[in-house]
Design brief:
About 45% of the residues are buried. It is globular, with a radius of gyration of 17 Å. Helix 1 (about 10-25) packs across helix 2 (about 45-55). It has helices at about 10-25, 45-55, 80-90, 110-120, 160-165, 185-190, 205-210, 245-250, and strands at about 1-5, 35-40, 60-65, 65-70, 100, 130, 155, 180, 190-200, 230-235. The N and C termini lie close together (about 10 Å). Helix content is about 30%, strand content about 15%.
């Protein structure tokens, strides 16, 4: 596990870009596109801004988003398909035809989930998965109680998650109650994980995830089971981490 304590969000994004680009270069082989897993939310924004500035360093990619709300109409401004287009595809000049997002408007969401899982496998799996962490320790939309070996599926969102995301909608009533999400087992199958977090509000969740037991009640605790994890923190997100954990981790430089 590598932990980077950044001085500010700009440093956080640049360090994360270094880590992602290095791993994508190592994953690239002639005639294939490395696979990047992309996350939405506020945590990875500094990374995407840094990658946009350095997009000439990106190889041709395939990308898979972590999750999508169920029930929003196509083109809704807060659907993750639209967020991925605005914040990732266009700034990074990615080929939209090689970027996949779960189909939140599918008539049969469970079938769509199985198809998405199969598409990731057909692409050879994810080489580098970008992650954020929720205040309750969730990864993607895997809420507390999610099975550690879960795969892409339909989930019900906890009220705390809906309240946290209500800032993107006109009211809490407009926030969907269900979503399609890659499972914890799907995330663990990625070859490298790169997690970003900022702000003291994430400190307790990170401390539980990295220092507590591996448990379904803290979905992000699966990070402890992965052989290649890079964690980048700013603005107090690492306040709950013990000196012992930091001493056993590889600190800067990254990668």
């Amino acid at each position: 596990m590598r932990i980077h304590l950044a001085a500010n969000l700009n440093e956080l994004g640049e360090a994360a870009a270094d880590a992602v680009l290095a791993r994508l270069r190592n994953a690239h082989s002639p005639g294939t596109r490395p696979v990047l897993g992309v996350a939405t939310g506020s945590s990875p924004l500094s990374l995407y801004r840094a990658l946009a500035r350095r997009r000439n360093e990106l190889p041709p990619l395939r990308a898979f988003a972590l999750d999508e709300y169920l029930g929003l109409p196509p083109g809704h401004s807060e659907s993750y398909a639209e967020v991925v287009r605005r914040e990732i595809v266009e700034p990074l000049a990615l080929d939209a035809g090689h970027v996949a997002v779960p189909d939140g408007s599918a008539a049969d969401p469970e079938r769509a989930a199985a198809g998405y899982e199969a598409a990731i496998a057909a692409a050879g799996g994810v080489d580098v998965q970008i992650l954020g962490i929720g205040n309750n320790g969730h990864l993607a939309f895997n809420e507390p109680g999610s099975a550690l070996d879960s795969r892409t599926r339909v989930v019900r969102l906890e009220e705390s998650t809906r309240q946290a995301n209500a800032r993107f909608f006109a009211s809490l009533d407009e926030v969907p109650t269900h979503a399609l999400t890659q499972g914890l087992g799907t995330i663990r199958a990625a070859r490298s994980l790169v997690l970003l977090a900022s702000g003291e509000a994430k400190a307790d969740a990170l401390a539980a995830a990295l220092q507590g037991p591996v448990t379904e009640q803290v979905p992000a605790s699966i990070l402890q089971l992965h052989p290649d994890v890079t964690i980048l923190l700013a603005d107090g997100a690492g306040a709950g981490l013990s000196p012992d954990l930091l001493s056993r981790s590889t600190l800067v430089p990254i990668p």
